[in-house]
Structures are given as structure tokens and as C-alpha cells.
Write a structure and sequence with these properties.
The protein is mostly beta strands. It is globular, with a radius of gyration of 30 Å.
């Protein structure tokens, strides 16, 4: 028998359960409405009124701007819904492309630094990515932090991001009660794009949000199995009747400096000899011949670096050191000249009296030509186990580079370089010529083949005084000497790589060789006479929850032998790279072993290990620590040593305008058999930067090199209006350690100023 209450209960349940299911379904549907959008599209509207770049978004010109939203978290999340909202606005007028961002967040958690352009690294920031030709060969990157400080890169498919690239554009930002907002105005005259009535550009909007993890958001969703980065950006249409840069830019520069040096380094009591105050005027210019072709020239350019390169430990290095290019003339269009081999290393054009450069981008083709007269030419003599650098005097340099995209993201190019040394026309100056072809063939979404072949012809100078002592150094089956005795020879170089780039499993198979008589006077090739085969592979384990974001085990093995099939070295390495969801912490560990035949000795049972850890503890403190130890060759002593290396750096930001960056490099080697110390020393460098506002800053560098016992003190005052319009005033002070009165009972050591320099520099960009 059923009770009446049971019927009521059943009716209640029969009605309630569907309602609950419906509520849960609706709730689940609401939570699941987020969908990443791959290759999004956007139609841009022209601004109906003016826009002032002041960090406010209340100008009438923003009223009808197009909006990009539905951002995704692309790192560390895999196209997941972001924790905070981001919205981008875009519009344009006849002169500018305008982009704005509204970044929602807790204002108290926003990280921002008032600093010079290009010098923020761990800040909140927004980015505009722009491929105006849509061929994925090169692209602009514009970034702005919450104080409006700019950073810009030029990305190329050969070498990635060029951090030295600069453009003139406007930006402003401010922190708000909902987070922060940013405005950008990029002049069309600063950009290169097709000369057509309607533009179709590949574009993406991004946002960096560094907290416990370094989180990145983007408008376009990305397939991690797709190796082409710009191919996955969105498509923006609607920009009409605008023209790329065409006109004249002039960059005059005035430099004044006075240098004092110790008159006699063998006599520490000798005073500084004050040199006269020297004044120099240089001028550079850039003229846009068309929408895609630019001609640049410079006479008596001031290529002095305001901040000297950080010293590198080279006590156990036998090859020429590589330094990045920071000179503006060589940075513009630098992506065009790049190849897999460093066939044109711009710092070999050391001290040009004049230089001219033509760069162009038309359809899917890039063209570059550079010519210069170099007053003091560094000449790298490559050997199979070391390189020798000499100053070969004046030379004339010419470089031609052409590359083109074709088909489905394939690329092909060639490069010609020619260097002729002074007095070559009378028959004894010497010359160097190379011709190379390179390509990047995409086989599928994940696989590609890249390679380059180069042939060289060298005619040595006839001046053995430059290479005194090198007459007995032979190469290429003992046919030629390293001395400059007028010999002529040719050689070639080749590299091929088979690559897989994907979400998880990646690898590179690499074979490259450089013939004994291959030499380039315009590139960075510190070795010759080798064949090299290597295999690299890694696997990314991405972890959705827990302490670790990603763990990547890696293997690398390499074998090198010379053209006589004699083994040079082999190595086997295993490493693990990991990123944590804690203070942006990374941890890297590596172990390896191998052997090497060097300078007539076969060194077996070599090994090494290294540890690398770093964190950004908060907005005020970041650090990195490296420790490595290896049983390796003490090369200048030609014996086996136990080498220990330590590197540590700290980034301190007591206030948002003051940055203190100390670092330490330490190296020590002991004899592997006796334990005797072979060498030890360290270099310490501290950089202190105070930014009063976006224009005015004071920087101070202190550096001590224990290997040559030298102190350097470099203060600098900077007032910067733009990338190129800037005023500098500074000085350098060098102190060396001298032995005082070595032949008397009062013998002791003391620090004395060995050199001093005062300088000022004023340059201003005029656009006509």
C-alpha cells in the first residue's frame, strides 16, 4: 500500500531533478562558453576624430575603434581562459596606426619600472605584433609597460628577435582603478609595407602578466604543433589609402672628448698626460626611395659605445670573442643580411670613415646592399683549434644580400661579400670574397630543412710585419702559412639541418663543415678544418597542476673531426630544464662527458656538470646563479685541469625608478693530476640606474677585472627625447695596480689612475 506522502515526495523529486539538471547544464554551458579563436580576423575603422597619446582613452577618435577581445592564455596555459580580462582597440588616420589596451587587474599587483626604453624585463606589458607583408619572414614587435616605457624588436625567421632594433613611435600609459591602460601611435612613415590602396596585415595583440608564473595572453590562439609563429596571428583588414615612410631623415651628431693617459706605464709615478679636447661632427641620413626601398648613408660616423661591452672571461678561450651589435646604422635592416653561418658579422666593419646601405622589401623579396671604407679592420685568422686577430689597417667592404619567400612558407637567398685591403690595387693589399646560397624548406607542419653553402676566395696581404711569429703555423695539408705573405687559396663551408618543431617532441639533426682554406673577412668564423655532426632532442612535459609548469629533458651529442678524418672531439650531454609555479623560478641541470684531441694530445675521460637556478621573488628582487665544474683542457698550458665556474647576478629595484644590477663571474682551474692551481680570477660588475622621468637618467657602472687587476668607473648622464635624439655627458676612470719601487726596501703595490676620459655626445633626428 502506498502512502499519500510518498506520492507527493515522488512528484517533488520528479519535478526537482530536471530543474537541477537544467540548472547544472546551463551553469556548465555558461562556464564552457570560452572558446579560443585561431587566426582571428578584424576589420579596422578609420578614426573619426583626433587622438592624443596621453594614456587616456576619452578622445573622440577612439569612439568607433575596432575591438579585439576573447584573449587566451598561451603560456603557461594551453589556450585556456585568462584569469583577467584584456581588450585591445585599433584605429588609424592618414599618419598613424593607433592601438590601445585596457588591462583589468588588481592595481596593487601591477609590476612597472620607470626606466629607459628597452630596459624593462620583468614588468607587466602589452605588445603589438605586426607582419605587414604577411610572408612570415620578418615582423615588428612593439611593447609598452604600465608607465608608457617602450621596447621594440625586429623578429626574423633566421635569428629570432633583434633587441637592438629601434623605431620612432609614441606611447603613454597609466595605472587605473581597474588595472592599467596603454596607448600607442605608430607613424606609417616608420613602417615598411606594400604600396597599395588597401592593406591586409598579419597582427596579434599580447599581454605579459608576471606573477608567480610569467603568464602571457594573446588575441590569437596558437597551435603548439605549428612551427611558424607569425603564420598564426590574426588578419587585419580595412586600413586604406595610407603610405609607408617616404622622405628624408638626417641624424647629425656632435661628439667632444678629452682623454688622459699615464705617460709611462713602466713608471707608476708618471703623471697623466692630458690630451687635447677633440671635437668631431658626423652625419647620417636615410632617404626612402620608394615605399619598399631605403637608402642610408653616414660620414665620419660616431660609432663609440656609450656603455662599453661587459668584460668576458677569456683566460681559457682560444677563439675570438663574439659581441652583439649595438650601433644604430647596422641595426636598421640587420635581419636582411643574416644567414645561418655568420657570413656578415657587422662588427668586422670596425671604424668606417663612411658607409652606405640600401635595403628593400618588395612583395616576398628582401634586398640589401652595404658598402663601407673601414679605417681599422680586425682580421680573424681561423685555425683548427684557435683563431688569431690582427689589425690589417684600411679596407673597403661590399655586401649584397637577396632573399625571397615562395610557396608555403619556403625561403631561399644568396649573399656576396667582398673585402679589399689598402694597397690592393698595387698588388699587395689582399682581399677576401665569399658567395653563398641558403634556404629554408618547410616539409610539413612540423618538419623543415635549412641549410647554407658558401665558397670563399682569399688573397692574403703581403705584409709579414702584421703577422710576425706566424710563419711556422701551417694549414690545409701544410700548403699555406698563417703569415701574410700574399698566398691565394679557396675553400668552402656547408651546413644542413633537419628539424622537428612541435608541442612536445623536438629535435635537430645538424651537419656542418668548414674547409681548411675557407676564410671570410666579413663574417664570424673562428675555426676552420672541421666536419661536425650533432643531434639535439627534447620533450616538453606540460603539467596543468602542481608546483611544476613544465619539465623538459634534453639530450645533445656532438662529434667533430678534421678533413684528414682525425677526431677532434666528441661529447654526450643530458640535461633537464624545468619551470615552477613559484616566483617564476627556473632550474636547469646538465651532465656530460667526452674526449678531445687538442694541440697534439688526446684527452680522454673529460666530464662536466652544471646547475643553473633563478627566480623573480617579487617586483623588487630577482636573481640568477650558475655553477659549473668540468674536467677539461687548460688550453694555454696544454694540460688537463679541473675548471670551476660561478656566475651570479641580482636585480634589485628599491623603488620603481632605481635599479641596481650587480653580477660576478668567477673561474678557477687546478691541475687534474697534481691539484696545483693553474689560474683563478673573477670579474665583478655593478650597474646602477636612476630614472628621474622618461627622458632623464643617471647611470653608474663599476667593474673590476681580477685577471688584469683593473678597476673601471663610468658615470653617465642621459637626456633622451626619442630612440635617436639624445644627449649624453659622461666620463670613464681606469685604475691599475702597480708595483711601487720594486728595487728598494719600500717596495709595495698601489692603485693608480692609468687613464681618464671625459666625453659628451649630442644627436638629433630631423625628418623632412
Amino acid at each position: 500500500m502506498e502512502r499519500s506522502g510518498d506520492n507527493g515526495y515522488r512528484r517533488y523529486v520528479s519535478l526537482t531533478i530536471p530543474v537541477i539538471i537544467l540548472i547544472l547544464t546551463i551553469g556548465g554551458f555558461a562556464k564552457g562558453t570560452f572558446q579560443p579563436v585561431y587566426n582571428p580576423t578584424l576589420e579596422v575603422n578609420k578614426a573619426i576624430d583626433r587622438i592624443q597619446i596621453d594614456g587616456e582613452l576619452d578622445d573622440p577618435g577612439w569612439a568607433d575603434a575596432s575591438r579585439a577581445d576573447n584573449f587566451v592564455e598561451r603560456s603557461p596555459g594551453d589556450m585556456t581562459e585568462p584569469e583577467v580580462e584584456t581588450e585591445a582597440l585599433i584605429t588609424y588616420d592618414e599618419k598613424y596606426l593607433y592601438v590601445a589596451f585596457k588591462c583589468h587587474d588588481d592595481p596593487a599587483t601591477i609590476r612597472a619600472t620607470m626606466c629607459q626604453r628597452d630596459q624593462f624585463y620583468s614588468d607587466d606589458a602589452v605588445s603589438l605584433l605586426l607582419d605587414t607583408y604577411g610572408d612570415a619572414a620578418w615582423a615588428y614587435e612593439f611593447l609598452v609597460n604600465p608607465y608608457g616605457v617602450q621596447k621594440d624588436y625586429l623578429w626574423s625567421r633566421v635569428h629570432g628577435e633583434d633587441m637592438g632594433f629601434d623605431l620612432i613611435w609614441e606611447s603613454a600609459a597609466r595605472i587605473t582603478d581597474f588595472g592599467y591602460q596603454v596607448e600607442m601611435a605608430i607613424p606609417f612613415e616608420s613602417l615598411r609595407f606594400p604600396n597599395s590602396d588597401a592593406q591586409t596585415w598579419k597582427m596579434d595583440f599580447g599581454r605579459n602578466r608576471p606573477r608567480e608564473s610569467y603568464t602571457q595572453y594573446s588575441w590569437a590562439a596558437y597551435n603548439r604543433d605549428e612551427q611558424c609563429w607569425p603564420c598564426q596571428w590574426g588578419t587585419v583588414n580595412g586600413i586604406k589609402n595610407v603610405r609607408p615612410g617616404k622622405g628624408l631623415e638626417l641624424l647629425p651628431t656632435f661628439v667632444g672628448h678629452q682623454t688622459s693617459r699615464m705617460s709611462d706605464f713602466n713608471n707608476p709615478e708618471s703623471p697623466l698626460d692630458d690630451g687635447r679636447f677633440k671635437k668631431e661632427l658626423s652625419i647620417g641620413g636615410k632617404y626612402s626611395l620608394s615605399s619598399s626601398m631605403t637608402l642610408e648613408g653616414t660620414y665620419n660616423p660616431d660609432f663609440s659605445q656609450i656603455e662599453s661591452d661587459a668584460a668576458q672571461i677569456d683566460v681559457n678561450t682560444t677563439v675570438a670573442l663574439f659581441y652583439p651589435e649595438r650601433r644604430p646604422f647596422f641595426q636598421e635592416g640587420s635581419d636582411i643580411f643574416r644567414t645561418i653561418f655568420n657570413s656578415f658579422y657587422t662588427r668586422t666593419v670596425n671604424d668606417p670613415q663612411f658607409a652606405v646601405k640600401l635595403t628593400g622589401r618588395t612583395n616576398r623579396m628582401n634586398i640589401g646592399f652595404l658598402s663601407a671604407l673601414d679605417e681599422n679592420t680586425p682580421y680573424i685568422i681561423p685555425l683548427d683549434d684557435r683563431s688569431i686577430i690582427v689589425n690589417s689597417g684600411k679596407s673597403y667592404v661590399n655586401v649584397i644580400r637577396v632573399s625571397s619567400a615562395f610557396g608555403n612558407d619556403h625561403h631561399l637567398g644568396f649573399i656576396l661579400t667582398d673585402r679589399r685591403f689598402e694597397d690592393n690595387f698595387s698588388g699587395d693589399g689582399g682581399s677576401g670574397f665569399i658567395a653563398g646560397i641558403d634556404g629554408d624548406i618547410r616539409l610539413s607542419q612540423n618538419y623543415s630543412i635549412v641549410g647554407q653553402y658558401i665558397t670563399s676566395y682569399t688573397k692574403e696581404p703581403e705584409d709579414t710585419t702584421i703577422t710576425s711569429g706566424l710563419e711556422d703555423i701551417l694549414f690545409d695539408k701544410d700548403r699555406y702559412t698563417a703569415a701574410f705573405n700574399g698566398e691565394s687559396y679557396s675553400g668552402d663551408a656547408f651546413i644542413a639541418q633537419f628539424r622537428r618543431r612541435a608541442r612536445n617532441w623536438n629535435f635537430t639533426l645538424d651537419y656542418n663543415q668548414v674547409a681548411p682554406a675557407y676564410r671570410t673577412e666579413t663574417g664570424y668564423d673562428p675555426w676552420n678544418d672541421y666536419r661536425n655532426f650533432s643531434v639535439y632532442s627534447n620533450y616538453n612535459f606540460r603539467i596543468d597542476e602542481g608546483m611544476f609548469e613544465m619539465v623538459t629533458p634534453q639530450i645533445y651529442t656532438e662529434r667533430r673531426w678534421n678533413f684528414d678524418n682525425e677526431k677532434k672531439w666528441n661529447s654526450y650531454n643530458f640535461s633537464v630544464d624545468s619551470h615552477l609555479r613559484l616566483a617564476q623560478t627556473y632550474f636547469y641541470a646538465e651532465v656530460g662527458s667526452g674526449s678531445e684531441f687538442w694541440n697534439g694530445v688526446d684527452y680522454q675521460n673529460l666530464w662536466g656538470y652544471e646547475l643553473n637556478i633563478g627566480s623573480r621573488l617579487n617586483d623588487k628582487i630577482g636573481y640568477g646563479i650558475y655553477f659549473g665544474q668540468e674536467r677539461n683542457i687548460a688550453r694555454w698550458l696544454n694540460t688537463k685541469g679541473i675548471e670551476t665556474e660561478i656566475y651570479a647576478d641580482v636585480n634589485l629595484k628599491p623603488t620603481d625608478r632605481l635599479i641596481i644590477e650587480p653580477n660576478l663571474s668567477y673561474s678557477r682551474s687546478t691541475d687534474a693530476n697534481t691539484g696545483e692551481e693553474l689560474y683563478s680570477g673573477y670579474i665583478t660588475r655593478t650597474r646602477i640606474q636612476y630614472q628621474a622621468n622618461r627622458e632623464l637618467s643617471l647611470r653608474f657602472v663599476i667593474q673590476y677585472n681580477d685577471f688584469n687587476q683593473k678597476w673601471e668607473f663610468d658615470p653617465l648622464l642621459t637626456y633622451r627625447l626619442s630612440s635617436f635624439s639624445v644627449f649624453y655627458a659622461g666620463s670613464t676612470y681606469d685604475y691599475d695596480k702597480f708595483e711601487i719601487n720594486p728595487l728598494t726596501p719600500e717596495r709595495y703595490t698601489d692603485w693608480r689612475m692609468s687613464s681618464r676620459q671625459y666625453f659628451m655626445k649630442l644627436q638629433y633626428m630631423f625628418r623632412i
